User: What shape does this take?
Amino acid sequence: MLVLGAFLALGLLWFHFGSLSAIRSGLNAAPNAVTPSGATNHSVAVAAAAAAKPLPGFLTGTNRLAFRLANTPKSLKQLLRDPHAILLQNALIDTRAALAGLNIPGNLQAKGDPGAYIVQAHGPTSPAFRAALQAAGARIVSYIPNNAYLVQLNAAGAGGLSASPLVQAVLPYQPYYKLQPALLALATADASLPPATVLTVGLFQGADVAELTVHGFVPVGVPDESPFGHIVHVQPPLNQPLSQLASLAGVQAIELGHVRVLANDLARTNLGISMDTVTNANWLNLSGKNVMVELNDSGVDAAHPDFSLSGTAETGPSGASRVTGDFAASLLDTNGHGTHVAGIIAGNGSESYTITATNPPQGSVTNADFRGKAPAASLYVVGGIDPDFGYGSSDRYRQEQPAQTNP
Assistant: This one.
């Protein structure tokens, strides 16, 4: 029997507007400045879960870089290692050139003290540079390429840093930089979002969610946490331009909100594992039978119906569990994450029969099969990923235990 070791972890995906992942995605795209006046729609990457749901009209365009501004003729590739470049998803900035060359629309420029700045060092960031930021009262939020930090800071502190020999440039964190590119067409025109639109808003640490409600933005669901501050989901009031939300000092980033939906059925077809979301078959009839996958996570609910030995979407759960583990505690899951990951790997979809016309699936069709990728595979669960979980706390244990057991 083959034992496959899988160290799986799920981290918070925080889409920051200065992230390298966003920058690298545009390396081969047109890099130069484009003023907003001639641009129209933009595209947005949509999760597989939303593939069957029509997108709002303002998200169905093709040029996601149409509103990316620049004050330099240099390409992104040329700027990537330039110590004077600030690389944001919505702007490519050469700090040697005039910032007025960005042509940021007036409604998306900071009015007064923005409460946050991008501070670029002379050369690589260093302990001395960070000490200078701290001395000026700045709180570092995140790294911004190249050689810069996004910081929370007042105007007086920003002015003091401008005179430091360690500092190359201090730039206001403009409302324009906070917006997901797909939202910029509406934001630059001060147009309203369609009714019932949900926005995901990242706040700076210390920012009060109540500030959003004062301006008419209605919270949806429970706020999430991130290393950068709270993440809240809100519905904007009718006829409220995005520029007002982006101009709030406590707001760090704004993107279109997406409701989480069941997606295993859609992911199976997107990956070529199944021909469609209903057919109870796998590519080349591969099912994972006689394969054991070793899983390290928060534990797995071994009694979950989707891990039954011979259950299917048509019949429901049947037979004993396919989940074993090193200790009884590994076969329990008080967190839910381990069971979720195990379902993606080896769930047999035996609860899919509960999806009916009166209880329709989200994003799929009636009779959809929400199986995992290897629905007949077995799972061997080792310890936990919590460092306080005693016997399961070391990487050595997590690797040696399944290899030595080889059930």
About this structure: The chain is about 15% helix and 15% strand. Residues 312 and 344 are 15 Å apart (CA to CA).
